[in-house]
Amino acid sequence: MLKAMGASPGIAIGKVMIKKEEKIEILEELIEDVEEEIKKLDDAVEHSKVILNELYEHTLKNIGEDEAEIFKAHELILYDPELFGKTRELIKEKKICAPYALKTVTQEFLNIFEMMDDEYLRERASDLRDVTTRVIKKLLHMEEVDLSNLDEKVIIVAHDLTTSHTAQIDKSMVKGFATEIGGTTSHSAIMARTLEIPAIVGCSNLLENVKNGDIIVFDGHEGHVYINPDKSILREFERKEIVYRELKEKLSKLKGKESVSKDGVKVELGANIGTPDDLDGVIKNDGEGVGLFRSEFLYMDRDTLPSEEEQFNAYKKVAEGLKDKPIVIRTLDVGGDKEIPYLDLPKEINPFLGYRAIRVCLDKKDIFKTQLRALLRASHYGNIKIMFPMISSIEELRSSKEVVYDSMNELKRENIPYDEEIQLGMMIEIPSAAIISDLLAKEVDFFSIGTNDLIQYTTAVDRMNNQISYLYTPYHPALLRLIKTVIDNGHKENIWVAMCGEVAGNPKLIPILLGMGLDEFSMSPISILKARHIIRNISKKEMEIHVENILKLSSAKDVEEYIDSNININF
Q1: Is 97 a residue of the active site?
Q2: Tens of pLDDT along 400-421?
Q3: In what order do the strands lie in the sheet with 2-3?
Q4: Which of 31, 133, 187, 355 is the most exposed place for a label (fewest CB within 10 A)?
Q5: Could you give phi then psi for residue 109, rounded to 5 degrees?
Q6: CA separation for the pair 305, 299 (Å, rounded)
Q7: Which of 507, 358, 474, 354 is nearest to 425 (CA)?
């Protein structure tokens, strides 16, 4: 058995078709005619625009509007003056060929994205690679792979699948796909979920273990992969496939129902999103709002700051798209691991403990105020709430609120409407904030626990470090005690407490979080209906007893074993 990350749920059973990686050999060749080389680059860019427009039309017709918009975003990369301007400058300066110049400049940008801790933003590197590879292939006169004309039903196995390749997939002929690299928030994974095709990513050494025509089976949720399985495993997966279809039908019947426990305790199930284009997934999966809207997308893939008007229009689109449903928008969370070249932020030895998030915003108040004015203006059109990231002290929180109040006063003087009752909240993702949450709760309308960073900071484990990643666990007793402390302190001050980290969508921990009293769970849209099923089939009072027992346990292993032995959710 091989292990991968589940990217799109479902059971895949079928014959392997390997999508061979085309080796692109790019040599640093010197040129004589600089203008001619730049013209070749410009022609390749124009050709790529035509292809992307064709992919847009194909995706719009066969998959959906939001998925098609990915290719409009790809087209914007082709207009990026920073990317292609630098490439042209390099051709002139070094007198080198266009493919090598573009590869060199692209790698600079890829290094920035791939260093980021936020998986969603890190995966945007694949979009940049997809776009520039298309241009380079045109320059080298290489043919594009076509996955739209298959003559038999297969499971595609590849080192990686770009968004463009995924968009070509004929759902009737492709039973699933498996890749060696990639993440669950890549556009390919998102598109697979929309197409409802089972998919796994990050399956190391997969291509070393398969050949064309092999039979492969995998679980797109758990990530278990078998190649040429014996009859007993095959029968087990065939049974799982039937169970999955029945579960999917059962979960679809929960749309429109309340997220309420057996003993009548109602919670809110929201979604984590990264751009306005992600709203379709929220609506499709019956999300009750947005618990985390990452605003960083507005600042990425560009060489100047977004204007107030540009930000206002993006936030307004989300507000109007969800009507009266709540939308928690996190203020700019960049710096450290999330580099933005035009901000010229300092290089740091330890970016995770450095100049980032609210620390940048409070230092660069003009940038912060522009965003806050846009958020406040958009609040007139929907139920927007503002959330500050990486607050570690009461001083930071008060300073952040002061900038909000200054922005409100400006808008008042300009007779620009905004929601005067707008709620202000903060993320709890640093242990210091969790420990003084009784004091912080007096200053805000809500907390949202960001478990991804809270685990990292509490356990002193870099989750990107493979050597110690096994220590990064949501079952650590210290983490669970901090979460319970934050929820209790929030409730003592009559504020609501949410969670927007990965833990909020963990099926094993949802019952425990309900027992702790969590008010809102925010997760990937695709997890919402499963979470609703869990909530509707447990009693909060019963879970409270389990919480008492769990908080006495001394290790993550004991916690997980206790949950597995004592809490059974029947799907």
Answers
A1: no
A2: 999 999 999 999 999 999 999 9
A3: 2-3, 224-227, 215-219, 11-18, 154-158, 174-179, 199-201, 5-8
A4: 355
A5: -70, -40
A6: 6
A7: 358
Average pLDDT across the chain, whole number: 89
Judge residue 507's burial from the number of C-beta atoms within 10 Å of its C-beta, 0-12 exposed, 13-18 middle, 19 or more buried. Answer: middle
Task: Check: CB of residue 106 under 8 Å from CB of residue 59.
Answer: no
Topology, domain 268-422? TIM Barrel (3.20.20)
Across 289-301, average pLDDT: 86
DSSP-derived pairing of the beta strands 215-219 and 11-18 = antiparallel
3-state helix, strand, coil split of the chain in percent (to 5) is 50, 15, 35
Q: What is the pLDDT of residues 475-511, one digit of tens each?
A: 999 999 999 999 999 999 999 999 998 899 889 999 9
Where is average pLDDT lowest: 193-197, 244-248, 535-539, 549-553? 193-197
Structure-token match 């709620």, residue found = 423
How far from the centroid of its chain's Cα atoms is residue 39's Cα?
A: 37
The beta strand positions in 295-414, using DSSP E, are: 326-330, 383-388
546 pLDDT more than 60: yes
Question: 273 with 282: CB under 8 angstroms?
Answer: yes
CA-atom Rg of the chain in angstroms? 24
438 in Cβ contact with 418 (< 8 Å) = no
**CATH superfamily membership of 2-22+145-233:** Phosphohistidine domain (3.50.30.10)
Q: Tell me which of 165, 187, 221, 476 is the catalytic residue.
A: 187
The C-alpha atoms of residue 124 and residue 299 are separated, in whole angstroms, by 13
- 3-class SS at 449? strand
Catalytic annotation on 500? yes
Main-chain dihedrals φ then ψ at residue 53, nearest 5 degrees: -65, -40
Residue ranges covered by each domain of the chain? 2-22+145-233, 34-139, 246-264+428-571, 268-422
Right CATH number for 246-264+428-571 from 3.30.70.100, 3.20.20.60, 1.10.860.10, 3.40.47.10?
A: 3.20.20.60
Summarize pLDDT for 210-257 with one digit per residue, the tens: 999 999 999 998 889 999 999 999 999 999 999 888 888 889 999 999
Q: How far apart are CA 91 and CA 78, in angstroms?
A: 17
Under a CB-based contact definition with an 8 Å cutoff, are residues 291 and 270 in contact? Answer: yes
Name the residue among 247, 265, 153, 156 with its Cα closest to residue 200: 156
Separation CA 331–CA 375 (nearest Å):
9
Q: Which CATH superfamily is domain 34-139 in?
A: PtsI, HPr-binding domain (1.10.274.10)
Q: Residue 314: exposed, middle, or buried by beta-carbon count in 10 A (0-12, 13-18, 19+)?
A: buried
